[in-house]
């Protein structure tokens, strides 16, 4: 069995998905706290932006040190509460 298989072969990045699900759960509780109807809420905008890399170091053979960077990101969700359909006024 081949481990470390990418998502192109039918697998998904589980760690990233867990973080996004946690963000959506937080989004739902924030909407409830603000007094919005969660059933009518709709995500209108999602953006992911690159953040500052986390810097650590890993120790190598013969007394060398190499950088061990983590690539972080900012995820932003915009939510609006949708109302019902608006009736069209007839033109005069």
SSE topology:
Blueprint: H1 14-34, E1 41-50, E2 54-59, E3 65-70, E4 73-81
Antiparallel strand pairs: 1-4, 2-3
Task: Tell me what you see in this structure.
With 92 residues, the chain is an alpha+beta fold. It has one domain: Ribosomal protein L22/L17 (Ribosomal Protein L22, Chain A, Alpha-Beta Complex), CATH 3.90.470.10. 23% of the residues lie in helices and 34% in strands. It has 1 helix and 4 strands. It has one helix at 14-34, and strands spanning 41-50, 54-59, 65-70, 73-81. It has a two-stranded antiparallel ribbon with strand order 1-4. It has a two-stranded antiparallel ribbon with strand order 2-3. The longest helix has 21 residues, at 14-34. The radius of gyration is 22 Å and the shape is elongated. The model has no long low-confidence stretch (mean pLDDT 87).
Please identify which CATH superfamily we are dealing with. Ribosomal protein L22/L17
Number of helices: 1
Kindly report the CATH topology.
Ribosomal Protein L22, Chain A
CATH architecture: Alpha-Beta Complex
Largest sheet: 2 strands, antiparallel
- Whole-number tally of structural domains: 1
Strand adjacency order, main sheet: 1-4
Structural class: alpha+beta
**For this entry, what is the oligomeric state of its chains?**
single chain
Cα end-to-end separation: 72 Å
Low-confidence stretches: none
Order of SSEs, N→C?
Answer: HEEEE
- What is the typical, i.e. mean, pLDDT? 87
How does the overall form come out from the CA principal axes?
Answer: elongated
């Amino acid at each position: 069995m081949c481990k470390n298989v990418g998502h192109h072969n039918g697998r998904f990045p589980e760690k990233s998905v867990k973080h996004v699900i946690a963000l959506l759960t937080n989004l739902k509780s924030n909407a409830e706290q603000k007094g919005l109807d969660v059933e009518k809420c709709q995500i209108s905008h999602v953006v992911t932006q690159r953040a500052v890399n986390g810097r650590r170091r890993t120790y190598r053979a013969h007394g060398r040190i190499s950088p061990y960077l983590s690539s972080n990101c900012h995820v932003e969700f915009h939510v609006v509460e949708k109302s019902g359909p608006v009736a069209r006024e007839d033109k005069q």
